[in-house]
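For the sake of transparency, this paper describes our internal protein records without simplification. The tokens are whole numbers drawn from a learned vocabulary of local backbone shapes. One such record is reproduced below, unchanged from the form in which we store it.

. . .
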Amino acid sequence: MERTNEEIEKEIIEYLDENSTKSSRPGSSCALGSCKDNIPRVTPVDYYSDGLTLWMTADPGGKLENIRANPNVSVGIFNPIDRSKENRSIMLKGKASLVTYREQKELYMDIITKFGMLDSLKQAIRSGLIDKQTLFEVSLGEDFETKLDTLLHRQTLIEVEPETISLLIMPPGGIVERLVWEKEE
């Protein structure tokens, strides 16, 4: 039976919601593919879904440089394959844009609040986990507010607007079904 774009979209959104970082479901993985000067880069990331739009956080580095140079990205979302049960995965192609605290403070704060990222950041500071991180080359400061402000200025949000999404459904011992959603022009 042929499915409509709307039916496929509904099934994809359900999968994204069930497997996003906000669901805290163990086992699902997300890989962000970016490219600059014909050199590809794939980075494991957490993602949060808002309908078909994906949001990710990023520290300074290669993926941000790539997106600034080339906003075309791909995203893979998957769980380890278990051939004894149905497996599902997502392959997405889309455009990425960067949202920073410095340049788009209201949107930035809305997104990190909506998905619980702000609460997680605050908890990591309060628990001392942030102080134990060796990822940061800069001093975060001594007091809570200074640490939070430093982290908010350091992290960038990546918004991925999909152009096409393929949902692969692999039943045990069966034929793979590929549902393709395409952005309407």
About this structure: Residues 126 and 144 are 8 Å apart (CA to CA). The domain at 1-101+159-185 is CATH 2.30.110.10 (Pnp Oxidase; Chain A). The helical segments are 5-19, 62-69, 105-114, 117-127, 129-132, 144-154. The mean pLDDT is 89.
